[in-house]
Amino acid sequence: MKIAVVGTGYVGLVVGACFSETGNDVVCVDSDERKVRSLRRGRMSIFEPGLDELVRRNRLKGRLRFSTALAKAVRDADVVFIAVGTPSDEDGSADVSHVLTAAGAVARAISGYTVIGLKSTVPVGTAERVSALVGAETSSSFSVVSNPEFLKQGSAVEDFLKPDRVVVGTLDDARASGVMRVLYAPFTRTGAPIVIMDCASAELSKYAANAMLATRVSFMNEVANVCEGVGANVDDVRRVVASDRRIGPSFLFPGIGYGGSCFPKDVKALATAAREVDYRFQILEAVESVNGSQNRRFFEKMKRALGSLKGKHIAVWGLSFKPRTDDMREAPSVSLIEALLAAGARVTAYDPEARRSARAIFGDRVVLAVRSYDAVKDCDALAIVTEWNEFREPDFERVFELMRSPVIFDGRNLYEPTYMERLGFTYYSIGR
User: Among 90, 94, 161, 424, which lies 20 to 30 A Cα-Cα from 263?
Assistant: First the structure.
């Protein structure tokens, strides 16, 4: 099929590259000319494992192109995916203005039957709004489908190529669902279901899934906090809970809170959507509150242990909100570092991929080390914020020698407390 993807952000790039991998002719469109020029030169605007290779291969095959000419790309397409941002508005609701703007531009460009797929995470009713908007702008036949993405940063390519399920919401449109079944058939040959439902249910399903995962994270952080109070070990508690087949092990690791482009935004959006229909989503209000307090709790732990932070040199390992990405949106590292700076500390930070993102956020207020060991030199304490694999088994003897004071605050429970104490470190973790 001929496919146009509007938006070359995180979702748009992955969607375009993966659909081109199965032989489709894909054009990814963006209004940012500099970004499009970079993509044409093979320079990725994001870090995502496997994406570089996928883009490079399909560009060489002529199946994947990048353009600023939206009208031409849409006019030639059988399916147009809208994959633009839906940031949180001031009241916590999702701002769909970019989606509606893109939909209007698509409507004015289509010249024959076109399926318009909404990849952006949008509140219930957006597909109907888009359908009405497009219908007012064109006399061509079209269908609007809700086709939310379920991509985890760090494994997005794998998630798209081998999905757990594909969700398609339609406005009682058999023709559109037929097109989507054909388009996704190569990705579901091993049995992953293509679930056809109404648009409202499809739109809500994305929010519900992310809200459930965020709830598990905050719940386990609460359990960890109780463990610290009563002297229990959260690792042992987690293993017992995870072994229950009704619960399972995913998203049960305690830490200093979730971040990223999805969980914070989607929790707010779902709670706000509930309020709009006169319902208070009390669990999600608590989830959001716990997540915010978890980071502050970690900072207070550092403050109590070190005394005054003024003039202290703090090293931070990990800046991205999770491993295998350079994304620092809503990353716990940002609020922690801001709190450290406000308390008068000097911060040297290291992350394998997020150096450019960190520079844009902190400027020259934070020293960004090129290597992990450079960050800990002459520091009074090390805070571990993101669980990159390279932090799991460092040369502890070297770390000990480089640090001014061998104090580690482990926000991801990477190490065993008794082992760290034997090595001579003063070691603080979560819930142990």
Answer: 161
Rg (CA), the chain: 23
291, containing H or E segment: helix 282-306
Show Cβ contacts of residue 75 under 8 Å, excluding neighbours closer than 6 positions. Answer: 109, 110, 111
Q: How far is CA 15 from CA 8, 74, 156, 408, in A?
A: 9, 16, 9, 40
pTM of the prediction? 0.93
Grouping H, G, I as helix, E, B as strand and the rest as coil, residue 69 is: coil
Residue in this structure with the two tokens 């039957």, named with its chain if needed:
113
Of 304, 375, 367, the closest CA to residue 341 belongs to 367
316 bridge partner residues? 349, 383
Q: What are residue 81's DSSP bridge partners?
A: 5, 117
Tokens describing residue 413: 């429970």
Phi, psi of 260 (to 5 degrees): 95, -175
Please give the Cα distance from 56 to 43 (Å, whole number): 10
Single-letter code of the amino acid located at 430: I
Nearest CA among 397, 402, 254, 390 for reference residue 315: 402
Angle at 210 between CA 96 and CA 301, to 5 degrees: 110
Q: What does the angle CA 125 – CA 129 – CA 131 come to, to the nearest 5 degrees?
A: 115
3-state secondary structure of 424: coil
Query: How is residue 338 written in tokens?
Result: 């801001």
Catalytic positions, please?
A: 262
List Cβ neighbours of 14 (8 Å cut-off, separation of 6 or more).
48, 51, 149, 151, 156, 157, 160
Residues 117-140 have pLDDT tens digits of: 999 999 999 999 999 999 999 999
| Tens digits of residue pLDDT in 172-225 | 899 999 999 999 999 999 999 999 999 999 999 999 999 999 999 999 999 999
